[in-house]
Amino acid sequence: MKPNDKAGAGNGGGAAPGTTADRNTGNAGRADKHTTPTANTPTITTDVPARLDRLPWSRWHWMVVIGLGTVWILDGLEVTVVGNIAGRLSEQGSGLPISSAQVTGVAAALYVAGACSGALFFGRLTDLFGRKKLFLITLAVYLAATALTAVSFSSWWFFVFRFLTGFGIGGEYAAINSAVDELIPSAYRGRVDLLINGSFWLGAIGGSLLSIVMLNTAIFPMNVGWRLTFALGVVLGLVILLVRRHVPESPRWLFIHGRGEEADRLVASIEKQITDEKGAPLPEPEGEITIHPRKSIGFTEIARTVFSRYRRRAILGLALFVGQAFLYNAVTFGFGAILTAFFDVPTASTGYYFAVMAAGNFLGPLLLGKLFDTAGRRIMISGTYLLSGALLFATAWLFSAGHLTATTLTACWCVVLFFASAGASSAYLTVSEIFPMETRAMAIAFFYAVGTAAGGISGPLVFAGLTESGVVADTALAFCIGATLMCLAGLTAALLAVRAERRSLESIASPLSSAPGT
Asked: Region entry Disordered: which residue ranges (predicted)?
């Protein structure tokens, strides 16, 4: 095996410039070359990225997916449970002096604000101090805040710890997406990212069904059941933490920060595990990269990189996140109110409809994910966005014409969100792979915060009156607004999406620390 780290080495080859993926993408797939020279500093030449990308799928990769990806299930569980228990919390005897409007309004807004703040705060720390430290810290914040939410005795206590729960979850998005993309081989990166982000909806299904059991006063007292739902989130989080302790630091982050020998040893141990499992030698890695190690990158350089050097990619990221945020608010904001107001569905039964819709959301990334690695990012991202937008336009027409029942409307939503969920998950994939290594977590955090703010702040302001007015035309208009923004995002992807399938992260966007000529 080639030596991986050569102090003071000259310029190595680019990031796998001779790979099949590079040759097949032609000029459109060429990396955006740029350097930030650091005078009189040693360089590190390494093939660590190529070694990680050529690994076959293994039990080790499943450990990464389970340890890092399953936290999205907790996010889906959190959001859904709180929405479903709002009515119970406001009832006398719940043990918490709070109104339903405060749960779905103030507490929900604080959760969103916490998620946005946490993403930005922990995103910066993730780039500075490493993926592993932060994905352990953010999960610890989530666990502590959720546990303290379960023992709420006052509305202010509930509000504070809803904010802190969101703070931890927001930080998870930056730390986890960074680590996953940097550890998963390039041939599988698209489908794995989509599956992980789509697993939010497994949590949503669980939250919907769990709330039905936990709120049953024949099983649990009124002031106990809702607390146990939060306690269960803590238990699941602790199980995830046990697995996550075995997930290593990103070798890519290590060598960028001057810890090349440590990165080499870590990759060698992973290779040994996989070789022992497969019983066959691994193929030789192709390509090296030479970098000037840097401890940190300033905000000014990060902003210049994302919004000036990669302006077209920044526009793409914003379009994808805002489009999916508004579509989901058009459909899901006031979900129960729409079924109750227009189809006389009992409030206690809306959870069943939501569980069915959530299943459609999960199946999209699960069944379509592989195509993002084979058919390609551009066709799949633009296709899922445009198709879901067109289908939502059709749903709006059927709804306004009076052709739908509660069951058929839910079926329409399932089909729309089957494609929209794959598209929305690909938004996270996109912003995590199209910017340089040193800015990755911060870029994820920024676009996540923008999308979350659009969905959690602008969305409700736009859709609240429309979906709650009881007027068919107003609700149909809400659908059309979401569909329009989704289609515009799809057109943007058709023009600007990066052909990142099966390519190393370093060939998609060269690290800022790359030595001249690499």
From this structure: 1-45
Q: Are residues 276 and 309 in the same domain?
A: no
Residue pLDDT, tens place only, 357-387: 889 999 999 999 999 999 999 999 999 999 9
Query: For the chain, what is the largest distance between any 2 Cα atoms, rounded to a whole number of angstroms?
Result: 73
* Same-domain pairing of 279 and 357: no
Residue range of the domain that includes 172:
44-284
385 and 255 in a common domain: no
Same domain, yes or no: 215 and 331 = no
CA distances from 432 to 27, 87, 95, 442 (A): 22, 38, 43, 9
Q: Which helix (H) or strand (E) holds 466?
A: helix 459-468
- pLDDT per residue over 461-478, tens digit each? 777 677 767 789 988 998
| Residues 139, 134: Cα–Cα separation, whole Å | 8
d(CA 195, CA 422): 9
The strand ranges marked E within 176-326 are 289-291
Is residue 190 within 8 A of residue 377, CB to CB? The reply is yes
- What pTM was estimated for this model as a whole? 0.84
- Say if 370 falls within a structural domain: yes
Phi/psi at 127 (nearest 5 deg)?
-70, -30
CA 26 to chain centre: 29
Last residue of a domain, one of 253, 284, 315: 284
